[in-house]
Amino acid sequence: MDAERSRLRVLVLEPYYGLSHRTFLEGYGRHSRHRLEVWKLPARKWKWRMRGAAFHFADRARSAGAGAGPDAVLASDFLNLCDWRALAPPAFGRAPAVLYFHENQVTYPLGAAAPRDFHYGWINLSSALAAERVIFNSAYHRGELLREVERVLGLMPDHVPPGLPERIGAKSAVLPVGIDFEPHRRVLESPRRGGEPPAIVWNHRWEHDKGPELMVEALLELKGRGVPFRAVVCGQASRRRPEAFARLEEALGPALVHLGFFEDRTRYLEALRDADVVLSTARHEFFGVSVVEALFMGCLPVLPRALSYPEIVPEGLHGAFLYDGERELHERLREVVLRPPREHREELRRAAARFDARLLAPELDKILEEAATWGPP
C-alpha cells in the first residue's frame, strides 16, 4: 500500500510524438515505476505544435475536471510551458514541471534559405525558466544551449535580467534518451545475414543538418578507390529528397541495396544487425539514437569527432572511429571498411547498452519525485 501511494501520477505532454521523442517515451513508459498518462499529438507541423499545443492540452485538462490534476508534469521542448501554465486549470498548471530537451530552436541549424526566427528559441528559453527542472539528452546539448542563450540575450537592447543561463544551468541535468532494447534483442537471437562485400549503413533523417551530400561524397570516394562495399541508406525521408541521392543511385547501382525508410521496424533492425559499419556525416546531433541502435546491433562506427558522439563512443576508441573534417572522414571510412577492428565490437555494444531504458528510467523517476516535493511555483 505504501509503495502504491509513493507512485506519482505523471502527466506527460508530448506535442511531437515521433522520432526520438517517441523512442524516449516508449522506453520510459515501459520501465517507470510511476503512473504515466501520456497526452500526445502526431509528429507533424512542428512550428504549429510549439505555438498551439498548449492550447489543446489546456482544453483537454479543463475537460478532465479539477480533481484530476497530476503530481508532476513531464513535457518535451515542443511545448510552450508558459502558455500551458497560464491556460490550464490550477490543478494542472501549478503541478511541478520537468522539461526534457530533445532539441532546441536556439541552436538548431537552419537550411541555407531559412531565415532565423528567434520566436521559437524564445519559447524554449521561457519554458526552461518556468520549469522546476530541465533535462538535456547530452552534455553537448546543454553546453551549446547555455552558451548560445548568453549570446542571444545580448541582442536585447536593454533591461536584460542577469544570470539567466546560470539560472537554467543550476536546475538542469543530463539524462540520455533511454531506448527499449527488447525488440533489438529479439532480432539478435536470429543469426546475422552478413556477407561480402561489407555493408555500410547511413540511418539518419534526410535533412540538411545530417549532411547527406557528405555521405554521398564519402561513398563515391570509396568506390573511386576500388573498395568493394554495399550501402544501406535509410532514415526518415523528407518531402524533398536530397539531390545528391540521384548521383548515388547512378554510381553504385546494385551495390546500393536499400534506399528509403524502413516502414517495418523489424526489417530495419535486421538491416542494422546485418550491416558492418554505421556512418554519420551529421553537422548537428543532440544525441544520436540511430547510432546507438546500430552500435547495439553490432556495427562499427565512423562518426564526427564532435557534437554528442564523443559521449557515445568510449574515449579509448575515439582515435579508431571518430574523424575531423572531410579528408579524415574518407580516410577513416576506408580504414574501417578494409581493416575492420572487430575486436572492439563488444566494447561498443556495451557502450550502447548504457542507454537502456531499464537503466535510465529510475533516474528520471527520481528527478520527477524530487520535483514533485517542491510543490507549485
Provide structural commentary:
By secondary structure, the protein is of the alpha/beta class. It has two domains: 2-180 and 357-373, Rossmann fold (3-Layer(aba) Sandwich); 182-353, Rossmann fold (3-Layer(aba) Sandwich), CATH 3.40.50. 47% of the residues lie in helices and 15% in strands. The protein contains 18 helices and twelve strands. The chain has helices spanning 2-6, 19-31, 46-64, 81-87, 90-93, 118-130, 139-153, 164-170, 182-188, 212-224, 244-252, 265-274, 289-296, 309-312, 318-321, 325-338, 345-353, 357-373, and strands at residues 9-17, 35-42, 72-76, 97-101, 133-136, 172-174, 199-203, 230-234, 256-259, 277-279, 300-304, 322-323. The longest helix has 19 residues, at 46-64. The model has no long low-confidence stretch (mean pLDDT 93).
Structural class: alpha/beta
Describe the biggest sheet?
6 strands, parallel
Mean pLDDT: 93
**What's the Cα radius of gyration?**
22 Å
Strand order of the largest sheet: 2-1-3-4-5-6
Which oligomeric form is depicted? single chain
Highlighted features:
377 residues, alpha/beta, Rossmann fold, 6-stranded parallel beta sheet, 18 helices, globular
What is the strand and helix layout of this fold?
Elements: H1 2-6, E1 9-17, H2 19-31, E2 35-42, H3 46-64, E3 72-76, H4 81-87, H5 90-93, E4 97-101, H6 118-130, E5 133-136, H7 139-153, H8 164-170, E6 172-174, H9 182-188, E7 199-203, H10 212-224, E8 230-234, H11 244-252, E9 256-259, H12 265-274, E10 277-279, H13 289-296, E11 300-304, H14 309-312, H15 318-321, E12 322-323, H16 325-338, H17 345-353, H18 357-373
Parallel strand pairs: 1-2, 1-3, 3-4, 4-5, 5-6, 7-8, 7-10, 8-9, 10-11, 11-12
